[in-house]
Specification:
binds guanosine-5'-triphosphate, about 45% helix, binds magnesium ion, elongated, Four Helix Bundle (Hemerythrin (Met), subunit A)
Length: about 300
């Protein structure tokens, strides 16, 4: 994505501070068993996940026992380094781009998480950056879904491909790729219907959409983005695990981060599933989408409450 103005950093910073507020106590206490237990509980409550929380607390404990890291600042640094290390080696910057156009992004997730809104926001960002975009309405089920996406496409100045009501979503994706190839379009965004990860037939249908895209264009989809609602906490892990069985999820969009105080889920997703959070939804507006920046996140965790 890129192109986010430096002026927005403080907005993002304060957003994360709210999302991981009060993890570190006002004054880091004496590092005894009770304090460590308290820290672990705070991390788990903020959705960092049990596995990562335990590891971070162990690192703090070890550093406290070792020489030279007995003060509060040192302990904060150890915690920061432990959290930052989770994201080490993740690709920085934008989403993957195809060697030969079109680049294809497939957007998936359970009902109502923010898929269509995210597609609209991405389309807007890409068009504003000078890219030509086609948005494909592969949600042929819900009445109004096509119209909703078409409005986003119009606002963004993107092309639009629809299917027949109740038609095959894979066919819509196929048609969109054909249109993009014919017109020399840079990017195709495929919006899909919300589906419960427990619904076998719908999950198989999703696998088919991805397969048809793969067969139609070499290397596509270049990203399969799973949209999660940040407010559902640990259930996001369950959704990510199940969707990964049917699609090659390359990244996560954490929508509705503006509505939660439990931002630690970005750590749990990366630590337990190895899937990076790529984008964060911070509101309902067209501009309310940010790249995930691990440094902003760590800074917010360490910020005084
Ligand atoms: N506050 C907030 N609301 C969001 C965000 N993203 C989406 N929404 C809202 O969430 C609701 C559902 O968004 P949609 O984009 O329609 O969700 P969807 O996943 O496409 O839904 P289905 O297609 O029905 O599965 C809408 O009211 C959006 O405005 C976000 O980042 N923050
Ligand atoms: Mg939708």
């Amino acid at each position: 994505m890129g192109g986010s103005a430096a002026g927005r950093t403080s907005v993002r910073g304060s957003l994360w501070r709210r999302a991981v507020a009060r993890i570190i106590p006002r004054s880091f206490p004496k590092v005894d068993a009770a304090a460590l237990e308290d820290l672990e509980e705070r991390l788990i409550t903020a959705d960092f996940g049990v596995q990562a929380s335990k590891r971070f607390v162990e690192a703090v404990e070890e550093a406290a026992r070792g020489e030279g890291v007995g003060d509060e600042e040192g302990l904060r640094r150890v915690l920061a380094e432990s959290i930052r290390a989770v994201f080490q080696g993740d690709a920085e910057g934008g989403l993957a781009v195809a060697g030969a156009a079109p680049t294809v992004y497939l957007v998936v997730g359970v009902n109502g998480v923010g898929k269509t809104t995210t597609v609209g926001k991405i389309a807007h960002r890409l068009v504003a950056g000078g890219r030509s975009v086609i948005v494909a309405a592969a949600d042929t089920y819900r009445a109004g879904a096509t119209r909703q996406l078409e409005r986003w496409a119009e606002r963004a100045g993107a092309g639009f491909v629809r299917g027949k009501p109740g038609g095959d979503p894979a066919a819509v994706a196929y048609d969109a790729l054909s249109a993009a190839t014919a017109r020399g379009t840079d990017v195709v965004l495929v919006d899909t219907a919300g589906r419960l990860h427990t619904h076998g037939n719908l999950m198989k249908q999703l696998a088919k959409v991805e397969r048809v895209i793969r067969q139609r264009h070499d290397g596509a989809p270049h990203e399969t983005l799973l949209v999660l609602d940040a407010t559902v906490g640990q259930n996001g892990l369950v959704q990510a695990r199940e969707f990964s069985k049917f699609a090659t999820v390359t990244g996560i969009v954490l929508a509705k981060m503006d509505s939660t105080a439990r931002g630690g889920i970005v750590v749990a997703l990366r630590e337990e599933l190895g899937i990076p959070v790529r984008l964060v939804g911070v509101g309902e507006g067209v501009e309310d989408l940010e790249p995930f920046d691990p440094d902003d996140f760590v800074q917010a965790v360490l910020a005084a409450p």
